[in-house]
């Protein structure tokens, strides 16, 4: 019995040594974004990611955040009056899954992140034109210290988006339709993982 217990302990010893780089990881991520089309002008936000580090290179997480953004929700084209667009200040709650891969195990480590999630619009405007799926690939660099990891990253948030288009013309009847597409935003990330 003692020999079996000793053999089990010796077998698990490498696992315990390896598991020092494993475990729960809490990340706080602040972002600022610049819209790449007229659908979205800018955004600022903060997210909290509850993650699990599988090893020094690979981590998984679930995140929730709050984002403020200015986006297009109505556009009209009138032959006499010209073009008119209406924008709204959006209050958004993104919920997402995250996969992170670090390329090296050193104190300075480049990484790539993939976020996939759904954005909930909690603002007062009944037109919830950003309440939809999104993806965001991020590249960046970790700066590791004894207890925390600081990082900088650059991402491309691709959010499903729609707006109402209204056309007025002397030649054809007035028409209104919903235009669907993607609202890409270039995002800067600054965060800390505990």
Task: Name the descriptors.
8 strands, 1 helix, mainly beta, Porin, eight-stranded mixed β-sheet, 9% helix, elongated, 194 residues
Notes on the protein architecture:
- The protein is mainly beta and 194 residues long.
- The protein has one domain (22-193): Porin.
- It has one helix and eight strands.
- It has one helix at 2-18; strands at residues 23-37, 40-53, 58-78, 82-102, 108-121, 133-144, 149-168, 175-193.
- Strands 1, 2, 3, 4, 5, 6, 7 and 8 form an eight-stranded mixed β-sheet that branches.
- A hairpin with a 4-residue loop joins strand 2 and strand 3.
- The longest helix has 17 residues, at 2-18.
- It starts with a helix and ends with a strand.
- The model is unreliable at 4-20 (pLDDT under 50).
Strand content: over 45%
The class by helix and strand makeup works out as: mainly beta
Give the % helix: under 10%
Reported CATH architecture: Beta Barrel
What is the highest CATH level, the class?
A: Mainly Beta
Question: What is Rg?
Answer: 23 Å
Number of helices: 1
Give the secondary structure arrangement, pairings included.
Layout: H1 2-18, E1 23-37, E2 40-53, E3 58-78, E4 82-102, E5 108-121, E6 133-144, E7 149-168, E8 175-193
Parallel strand pairs: 3-7
Antiparallel strand pairs: 1-2, 1-8, 2-3, 3-4, 4-5, 5-6, 6-7, 7-8
